[in-house]
Amino acid sequence: MARHGPTPLLAVDAVALDLETTGLNVRNARIVQIGAVALTLGRPDGGEAFSMLVNPGVPIPAAATAIHGLSNADVLGAKNVSDALPELRSFVGERPVIGHSVGFDLAVLNAEAERVGQKPFKWPFLDTRMLAEMVNSTLPEFTLEALGAWLGVEPEGRHTAIGDARTAAMILAALIPHLRARGIRTWAEAERACREAPRERAAGHEIGWAESSRDTAPPVLAGIDSYPYRHRVREIMTSPPRFLEPGRTLAGAVAEMAEEKISSVFVKDARGVGILTERDILRAIAADGRVALKKPAAEVATFPLVCVNADAFIYRAIGRMSRLKVRHLGVTTAKGALVGALSARDLLRLRASEAILLGDAVRTAEDATALAAAWAPMPGVAEALLAEDVEAVSVATVISRELGDATRRAAELAEEALRAEGEEPPVPYAVLVLGSAGRGESLLALDQDNAIVFRSGAPGGPEDSYFAKLGAGIADTLDAIGVPYCTGGVMAREPDWRGSVETWRERIGHWLARPSPEDLMSVDIFFDAKPVHGDVKLARSVIAEAHSHASRAPQFVKLLAEAGPRPPDALKLFRGFRTDDKGRLDLKLCALLPIVASARVLAMRHGIAERSTQERLERLEERKKGASDLAAMRKGHKVVVAAILAQQIRDIHAGLKPGNRVETDKLSRSDQATLKEVLSLVPRIGDLVRDVLF
């Protein structure tokens, strides 16, 4: 059975289930009707449903008939339960189940299965009644009618199995925003909330009813081919790019490609840059015969050229080829310069398979729901990559790139929504991700850190008003897919995190000249910025100017270093971990923040342009020969990131919100010893920074 735990409720595929029975005692109730409705991406699928009358083999009591309207005559000739259960099992498949007081339905199903000698039903499930009680305990009752009135859902075919199943499906869809407001976003979080609900509150806790149990299925991505997540397009591309001379015929192109033993060449004409491939040539000859060879090659070539960034991971190129059904890509730099070619042949040796789930899905999602579905595999991908011994810092880079693309797509969707209302971007702009996403170090305890820079416009003016709406749309979409609002307000919807080029210059100048503690926190976040959408050149000019000014302001950098995080003592007198009452240690506070902040401030002082902590420390090591503590910091950063990421994956599957507190007793003895070395280094980081700063 597939894992459902990390999947956002907004994107879950499930089945809503309801039974009509001969009574309410699970020990002797018999099924008289089964109804099931598929949910696709968290909403009822109008086309996929299952409805069946069942002959219970016993008389239907009049009291039961009075409720559901089914009499002995209605089920005469219907299938018996031994035939009905396998059909239901086939319809549900590996999907989880939802329903209203569904613990009763599953208990009856299991009693019936035991009676006819069939295996029990072990579907993961959610109870809409229990979820509703969690988000609105003040309702006088929790019937489908009462919930429908509150949520604006009209019950369908009340007291028919298919009608009640469909209503439960609509209730769940309507509950999702309320659950998200309470921090319940994923299937596993909702399951855990149901398990931990007070037993005396809901009718869904009657004796004998089925209990929700945590999904323990094996990882979806066991055996993932990790190569495409480890390596970049630039490592396998063909470079430099091969261009045909203008006016070259198709025959000349064929001769050149054969001589060079290549499967494609680039061509230029008034349309821009295109690509001529072996398939283009074969199609032209099939259509026109030998006459095609006399045509200009540009007439046969494919325009426009589809490209991928040279710095992208290879899985992204595989996904793009698959989505667009092409076998060749141009390879470009971040500034758009064509530097190479990539073909399907280049990828064959990678053993690419369906395990490459991320592909281009985030980049091409049509709406927030599709974006949530595209984002859902991320914890599973991270888990599988760690299992394949991919370094945690590399996994963090994959997460960061997908988060950057999710932010970019959220911006595009927000812009499309504003355009539908008649509003266009008033000036060129760019969206930036900040903090860990900008450094390429995002883990799975995500929140939003983003900003907008636009070409011109005063605070509160019409341009700013447009980008306030755009920032709000970005934030709402990201929150919906499982990237929560930033509790510190570092989002483009807030005035302090959007502005014109001039506004940002003034803001940064204020930070550098008269910094307050709040300003120093902002610097920490902004100086890791990375543009992900819009006018990238505009954003880069602001970022480069900020770094240039900072590197020439030694007093500011010194102040920033002195205001850096002061980690608490993480080790006891005899080197035991100083954990909380749950046996956890906050490794972000105790180690990660000091290392990251120190690398940032040293890079700022010495004009190092790299954003990631690992690259910053590497460049510093090159400049400060023999700086063993820098090497130890770099190793320590890897150890801490690995420990936090592994804990976050465990917590996600347990239905807990991922964070930065690690259960130290879950680490191996070797990892515990290594972590203690790192934590012993942290108190010395302040002295190291002062030594290397000037």
Can you describe what's shown?
Helices cover 48% and strands 13% of the residues. It is an alpha/beta fold. It folds into 4 domains: 9-205, Ribonuclease H-like superfamily/Ribonuclease H (Nucleotidyltransferase, domain 5); 227-348, CBS-domain (Roll); 361-548, Beta Polymerase, domain 2; 584-693, no CATH class. A 6-stranded mixed sheet has the order 4-3-2-1-5-6, with helices on both faces. The protein has a 4-stranded mixed sheet with strand order 14-13-12-15, with helices on both faces. Strands 9-10-11 form a 3-stranded mixed sheet. Helix 5 (128-135) packs parallel to helix 7, helix 17 (378-387) crosses helix 27 and helix 25 packs across helix 26 (613-623). It is globular and about 85 Å long.
What does this entry show, briefly?
It contains 29 helices and 17 strands. By secondary structure, it is of the alpha/beta class.
Count helical runs: 29
Distance N to C terminus: 58 Å
CATH architecture of the largest domain: 2-Layer Sandwich
What is the number of beta strands? 17
- What name does CATH use for the topology of the largest domain? Nucleotidyltransferase, domain 5
Strand content: 5-15%
Biggest pleated-sheet summary: 6 strands, mixed
Uncertain parts? 199-204, 215-222, 349-356
CATH superfamily of the largest domain: Ribonuclease H-like superfamily/Ribonuclease H
Mean pLDDT metric:
88
